[in-house]
Amino acid sequence: MSPPVGDRPERWVLDAGEADVALLDIPAVLHDERVFEIDVRLEVRHRGGPEAGWHELKVELDGAQVWARRLDTPAGNADSLDYHCRRAVPAGRALRVRAVTAVGPGVQRRRLYIEAELAQL
């Protein structure tokens, strides 16, 4: 994870590589409400072969599932699932972003990535 530096906007990043689950914890700040632009991305590749493949991504914010999608993965091709949202975080509260993935036969995870950046209001 990368915390904010200097005058740059607050930005948190987690690159979980080929992991099936990623968890990004953003600590609370005491005095200010913050609004984050959140992006989650799962990249996969179908290794080929006769099996019909699929990939799935579920996103949770503070323990509650906010989005889920499952798609067929074209044989021999790369594909991805992307989720974007904006989330207000009250002063004194942390934010937990969790991504859970699953893949079907012949499909390989390539990258699971979470980014949360302070919105420019």
Architecture overview:
The structure is a single chain. With 121 residues, this protein is mostly beta strands. It is built from no helices and eight strands. It has a single domain, classed as Jelly Rolls (Sandwich), CATH 2.60.120.40. It has strands spanning 11-15, 21-26, 34-46, 53-61, 64-73, 78-89, 95-103, 107-118. The mean pLDDT is 92.
Layout of strands and helices, then pairs:
Elements: E1 11-15, E2 21-26, E3 34-46, E4 53-61, E5 64-73, E6 78-89, E7 95-103, E8 107-118
Antiparallel strand pairs: 1-8, 2-7, 3-6, 3-8, 4-5, 4-7
Order of adjacent strands in the largest pleated sheet: 1-8-3-6
Number of strands: 8
Largest beta-sheet characterization: 4 strands, antiparallel
Query: What is the CATH C-level name?
Result: Mainly Beta
Domain tally: 1
Helix content: under 10%
Q: Could you give the distance between the termini? A: 24 Å
CATH topology label: Jelly Rolls
As residue ranges, the low-confidence spans are none
Report the sheet-strand fraction: over 45%
How many helix segments? 0
Radius of gyration: 16 Å
> What class do helices, strands and sheet pairing give?
mainly beta
Q: What is the molecular shape?
A: elongated
Q: How confident overall, as mean pLDDT?
A: 92
The H/E string reads: EEEEEEEE
Q: What CATH architecture would you give? A: Sandwich
Sum this structure up briefly.
The chain has strands spanning 11-15, 21-26, 34-46, 53-61, 64-73, 78-89, 95-103, 107-118. The chain has a four-stranded antiparallel beta sheet with strand order 1-8-3-6, with no helix packed on it. A four-stranded antiparallel beta sheet has the order 2-7-4-5, with no helix packed on it. It is an all-beta fold and 121 residues long.
